[in-house]
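Readers of this paper often ask what the protein records in our data store actually look like. Such a record has a labelled line for the sequence and another for the backbone structure tokens. Nothing more is needed to write down the fold, since each code stands for a local backbone conformation. The record that follows is passed on verbatim for readers who wish to inspect the format.
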Amino acid sequence: MPYMRYSRKGLLWAAKRKLPTPDLKLEEIGKIIGGMWRDLTDEEKQEYLNEYEAEKIEYNESMKAYHNSPAYLAYINAKSRAEAALEEESRQRQSRMEKGEPYMSIQPQTPHRKTRRKNKCCLVLCVLNTFLNEKKDVF
């Protein structure tokens, strides 16, 4: 990953330098930076490698601390409960399918819902009719 660290700095360098051809594509800039990386001496590359290793150690230490934190342990606990619930639901669905029971059933519409829908349509028509009667002169 030291090359990626170098290329980030190279992209910043290219942006600050304002390359002579502003329409240079990212691919071409990448080739230029790659050539610059190949031209570096081993000592110069070692600087980037040392930075990478130091950051990697710091990252691993912070991950160890995070994995021992109460927040992460609560996340793992919740995740395992959710996975168990999904697996149980899957098992129940499979057993229903083996028994020949439908996955879901469609219930017929109740008379109460039909009446509510009909009343809602009537209300909309009444409001529309009133509006049109009031605005007759405009049309």
